[in-house]
Amino acid sequence: MKVLIANIGSTSLKWRLFDCANNAETLLHKGGFERVTDYPKAVEDCLAQLRDAGHIQSGRDLAAVGFKTVIAKDVTGCVRLDEKVLAAMEAYNGLAPAHNPPYITGIRLFGKRLPRVPLIGLFETAFYQFAPPAMMRYAVPETWHDLGIRRWGFHGASHKFIAERSAEMLGRKDVARRAANLYVDGGKSPVENPPLRVISCHLGGSSSITGILNGVAIGNSLGMSPQSGLPHNNRVGDLDSEALPYAVKTLGISIEEAQRQLTKEGGLKGLSGGLSNDVRDIQDAATKGNAKAKLALDVFVCEARRWIGGYFFQMNGADAIVFTAGIGENRTELREAICANLDQFSIALDPAKNNSVRATEGVISADNSRVKVLVIPTNEELVVARESKRLLESRN
């Protein structure tokens, strides 16, 4: 069973081909194109590379093409991508303008090129469909809520991978099994006591934090759109609802221009005075005394600690805090800052372990830290492949 995972951006196409036969999860091929202007050609070139590498002879050798889709109106989970689902994605283009339109285009192109191959989407919102309603509700009028104005949560594939892998690393096969079967049985797989409480920190160009109880998410720092939660590379994150109309009126700009500034000039880029949206550049400038760069890092750390603290209280503590994604896996200084001065919560890093773990699995907490602190490189594409296989098997 070969499953091709296509990751589509506004100017990029990246892919990974997995062999999922006989419970294997073998990565056969990966590649990608940047600065894509001709998507039909990019899709054809992707398939040509797979043929030239000897992994497929034709589309008949693919069990499915999977996509890490973001959000759709009234649709979530792992689903077949038919025209009804694509229309639901189009209805929410405004909530994910950098993600939905290119994905819709790419899905249709793959469908035209591979008409007999199932196209499957694992929505980023899927991991939060079992979260407590109180954790996902905004205090808006009922008519607003009926429009879909609520917390949806994102980075679901990444946090689900962390839910499974952290449980395995902590010796909780029962919880790992529940997380693995979540989209099959809705989290009904039995688990033993005590509960396993994990706080997953996906920190990168886009960042979010999720509380995970016994393999099931209780909430996510991202809300209705990917523009919320923590400060992102150039997206603002959480913002008072009155700020937008105030800026529009006071600056004399359109709503569209205000949205552009919030999504292109906010986040770490805005906090650093336009210096950069790359945390590496910002950290370098901060070490050289740039006050705005230091402020950007401080705000990021404060927001991460705020969300971690919220889930810590909601779950009556934590057994593990996990760092993942580009910043979480590699930026030792930010991991140290986020975990600083938390001895009263039984959280302590081992400086040597922290400094030695980059882009690889490891435990970075001190031996006397009751709360384990882990680094786990995420694998979103593998999660999409796994769920695509489960969906196909459930319909056979």
Structure description:
The chain is an alpha/beta fold and 396 residues long. The chain has two domains: 2-123, 2-Layer Sandwich (Nucleotidyltransferase, domain 5), CATH 3.30.420.40; 163-380, Nucleotidyltransferase, domain 5 (2-Layer Sandwich), CATH 3.30.420. It has helices at 39-52, 83-91, 100-113, 133-136, 142-146, 156-169, 173-180, 182-185, 243-251, 255-264, 267-271, 279-287, 291-314, 325-330, 332-338, 351-356, 380-394; strands at residues 2-8, 13-19, 26-33, 64-67, 78-80, 119-122, 197-202, 208-213, 216-220, 320-324, 362-363, 372-375. A six-stranded mixed beta sheet has the order 3-2-1-4-6-5, with helices on both faces. Strands 9-8-7-10-12-11 form a six-stranded mixed beta sheet, sandwiched between helices. A hairpin with a 2-residue loop joins strand 8 and strand 9. The model has no long low-confidence stretch (mean pLDDT 95).
What tags apply to this protein structure?
Nucleotidyltransferase, domain 5, 2 domains, six-stranded mixed β-sheet, 396 residues, 12 strands, alpha/beta
